[in-house]
């Protein structure tokens, strides 16, 4: 039986703690009071959250362009990107209060780093019975990877190159590798990324050694150089998917030479929308449930590169975001 979160105050509000980025590159844990739960809402006690290094590093540095402030808002984000802001989107916890059919269930929610929260029942998704809660922090990344694969329209037999051996790139390669007959390779400039790729049964090659042409090329590296390399290795009428997000940084890409004569397609992918080929049938809830199901793969544990206690998060957060060795860093509560 889950232990209580804390003692409610006389006003009925429950105390909690949350990570706030107070200004660029400075954060702290702050005490808050949860609002009272309403009908069809749930009170969740957090077990784990996951740090998504790429996006959270941009937020932490204050590198979100003002033009993207509204589009980048997370479902439970508070504050603003001009600071202070409470940000994050990978939380796993136990429902302690709410409708009878969900109380006691372990759920995933797109929520910042916080030890307890109140949200609508339809904002949480129950974990599959056999999915370890500690691995479920990868759900938001898997949802993004699934959307990228949809945007890439990978077909059986395709030769696929995925640039960027971080969490999302590796998950994209993992999903592509499961499609019958595909030849998928994970490409990265960091040779250390070979270790988790090999452990997951994925072909890996250092960027400087990549050869040949590919049918589908996906850039998940947040590197303009990798995008240029993808264009260089694209076959006739190949599809190139840019899945990185650069924040306020501009990149230069080569659209001269044979780009047009090869009739290449360069498309963007972003998890905030469901691709047109799926949008008539798929809801965000269905996509998230499928992402959780796709996590029923023990090899994905290799993408958890470290763990920190929530009480130590404010002090460790800058180091976690700045380290090139960080994949998904898990926070335990």
Keywords:
about 325 residues, alpha/beta, Quinone Oxidoreductase, Chain A, domain 1, Rossmann fold, 2 domains
What order do the helices and strands come in, and which of them pair?
Blueprint: E1 14-23, E2 26-34, E3 41-52, H1 53-61, E4 78-79, E5 85-86, E6 91-97, E7 106-109, E8 116-120, E9 124-126, H2 139-152, E10 159-163, H3 167-177, E11 183-188, H4 194-199, E12 203-206, E13 214-219, H5 224-232, E14 234-242, E15 265-268, H6 276-279, H7 284-294, E16 304-309, H8 313-322, E17 328-332
Helix pairs in contact: 1-8, 2-3, 2-7
The CATH H-level homologous superfamily of the largest domain: Medium-chain alcohol dehydrogenases, catalytic domain
**What would you call the shape?**
globular
- Share of residues in helices: 10-25%
How many domains comprise the coordinates? Answer: 2
**Gross CATH architecture of the largest domain:** Alpha-Beta Complex
Percentage of residues in DSSP E strands: 25-35%
Class from secondary-structure proportions:
alpha/beta
- Largest β-sheet summary: 7 strands, mixed
Give the SSE order as H and E letters: EEEHEEEEEEHEHEHEEHEEHHEHE
Record field, number of beta strands: 17
Q: What is the CATH topology descriptor of the largest domain?
A: Quinone Oxidoreductase, Chain A, domain 1
How much is the average pLDDT? 95
Rounded radius of gyration (Å): 20 Å
CATH classification, class level of the largest domain: Alpha Beta
- Helix run count: 8
């Amino acid at each position: 039986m889950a232990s209580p979160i804390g003692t409610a105050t006389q006003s009925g509000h429950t105390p909690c703690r949350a990570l706030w980025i107070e200004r660029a590159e400075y954060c702290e844990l702050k005490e808050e009071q949860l609002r009272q739960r309403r009908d069809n809402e749930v009170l969740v006690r957090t077990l784990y959250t996951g740090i998504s290094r790429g996006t959270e590093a941009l937020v932490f540095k204050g590198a979100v362009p003002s033009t993207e402030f509204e589009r980048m808002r997370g479902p439970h984000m508070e504050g603003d990107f001009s600071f202070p802001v409470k940000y994050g989107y990978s939380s796993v916890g136990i429902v302690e209060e709410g409708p009878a059919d969900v109380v006691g269930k372990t759920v995933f929610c797109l929520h910042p780093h916080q030890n307890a929260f109140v949200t609508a029942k339809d904002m949480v998704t129950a974990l599959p019975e056999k999915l370890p809660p500690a691995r479920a922090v990868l759900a938001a990344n898997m949802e993004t990877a699934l959307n990228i694969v949809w945007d890439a329209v990978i077909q059986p037999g395709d030769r696929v190159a995925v640039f960027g051996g971080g969490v999302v790139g590796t998950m994209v390669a993992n999903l592509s590798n499961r499609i019958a007959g595909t030849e998928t390779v994970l490409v990265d400039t960091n040779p250390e990324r070979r270790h988790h790729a090999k452990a997951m049964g994925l072909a890996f090659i250092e960027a400087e050694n990549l050869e040949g042409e590919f049918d589908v090329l996906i850039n998940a590296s947040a590197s303009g150089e990798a995008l240029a390399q993808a264009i260089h290795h694209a076959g006739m009428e190949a599809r190139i998917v840019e899945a990185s997000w650069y924040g306020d940084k501009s990149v230069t890409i080569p659209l001269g030479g044979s780009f047009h004569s090869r009739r290449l397609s360069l498309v963007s992918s972003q998890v905030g929308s469901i691709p047109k080929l799926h949008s008539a049938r798929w809801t965000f809830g269905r996509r998230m449930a499928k992402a959780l199901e796709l996590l029923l793969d023990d090899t994905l544990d290799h993408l958890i590169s470290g763990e920190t206690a929530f009480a130590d998060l404010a002090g460790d957060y800058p180091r976690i975001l700045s380290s090139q060795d960080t994949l998904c860093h898990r926070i335990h509560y």
